[in-house]
Automatic annotation (TrEMBL):
It comes from the Eukaryota. Belongs to the NmrA-type oxidoreductase family. Isoflavone reductase subfamily. Pfam families: NmrA. Residues 2-61 form the NmrA-like domain. One of its GO terms (molecular function) is pinoresinol reductase activity. GO terms for biological process: lignan biosynthetic process. It comes from Quercus suber (Cork oak). This is Bifunctional pinoresinol-lariciresinol reductase. InterPro entries: NAD(P)-bd_dom_sf, NmrA-like, NmrA-type/Isoflavone_red_sf.
Amino acid sequence: MEKSKVLVVGGTGYIGKRIVKASLAQGHITYVLQRREMGLDIDKIQMLLSFKKQGARLIQGYNFLD
């Protein structure tokens, strides 16, 4: 089976984190969009670092409307 490229928006949310884990488990190239202004939410930072360790590629988002 051919592996897909998957972009997950909201990867630290209730459903998003499950999608990231499933995508990585199936060997897909997985990108996780992270907010630029995430701040100091330690739980989310640790989750993103865990995803990165598992092979996810983190992409920093920008808000062009500000």
